[in-house]
Design the sequence.
């Protein structure tokens, strides 16, 4: 293990307090708020960051819906980010974000970054994991936060 | 070959896209590197890129650039990225 900031493990960035399944959200703002609340609960951000994530979509559109059913809610590094972290809000029922190709959204992953680099290793791992269609299905069907983290842990363990 | 992955902030979606575009380059056996940019700096960064990868909405915002612009719908679908990248590389000649 080196001091390289890219070595943040996916599972370390996503503690159990940052994961919830069966989350109720009536619209995209509530869905992002749920992911933001989980970042706050795990100590990664303050409430102001949640508003910044919503503002990002208001200004730039729903481009954060980067795959069918999946949104990566995030904003810029800012004083409202206390440490780099991820959150995972699996919705009880899908909600539309207004994305042409990838609506509706079933899973909102929240991302808080302290700078442009510290999180990139964890995010690259996340990208490879989400590209694995079978793993993605299992993750979307997971019925508890512990199961989500176990599936991620298995994936990460297989990659080292 | 230089690729540019563009998203709103240059820290989230574009890193996901960069990771899977690197995999697509490997699949195609093409030697290249992928950089990331946010939409604010992308026009400048695109000047030296061969191919720009981004979403449909941000492609519209980016407008005309000298590079081939590839619109990706699913940023975690390596097959989609590989297919579109292959077509763009051929079109570029």
Sequence:
């Amino acid at each position: 293990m080196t001091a390289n900031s890219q070595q943040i493990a996916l599972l370390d960035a996503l503690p159990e307090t940052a994961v919830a399944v069966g989350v109720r959200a009536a619209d995209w703002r509530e869905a992002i708020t749920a992911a933001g609340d989980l970042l706050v609960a795990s100590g990664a951000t303050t409430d102001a960051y949640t508003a910044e994530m919503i503002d990002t979509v208001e200004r730039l559109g729903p481009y954060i819906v980067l795959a069918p059913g999946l949104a990566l809610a995030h904003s810029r590094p800012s004083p409202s980010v206390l440490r780099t972290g991820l959150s995972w809000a699996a919705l009880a029922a899908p909600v539309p974000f207004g994305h042409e190709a990838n609506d509706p959204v079933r899973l909102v992953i929240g991302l808080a970054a302290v700078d442009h680099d510290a999180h990139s290793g964890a995010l690259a791992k996340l990208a490879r994991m989400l590209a694995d269609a079978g793993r993605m299905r299992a993750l979307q069907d997971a019925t508890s936060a512990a199961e989500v983290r176990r599936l991620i842990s298995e994936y990460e363990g297989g990659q080292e | 070959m230089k690729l540019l992955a563009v998203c709103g902030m240059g820290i989230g979606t574009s890193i996901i896209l960069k990771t899977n575009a690197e995999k697509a380059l490997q699949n195609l056996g093409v030697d290249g590197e992928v950089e990331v940019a946010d939409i604010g700096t992308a026009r400048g960064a695109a000047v030296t890129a061969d191919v720009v990868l981004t979403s449909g909405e941000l492609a519209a915002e980016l407008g005309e650039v000298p590079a081939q612009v590839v619109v990706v719908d699913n940023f975690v679908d390596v097959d989609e990225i590989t297919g579109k990248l292959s077509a763009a590389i051929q079109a570029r000649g």
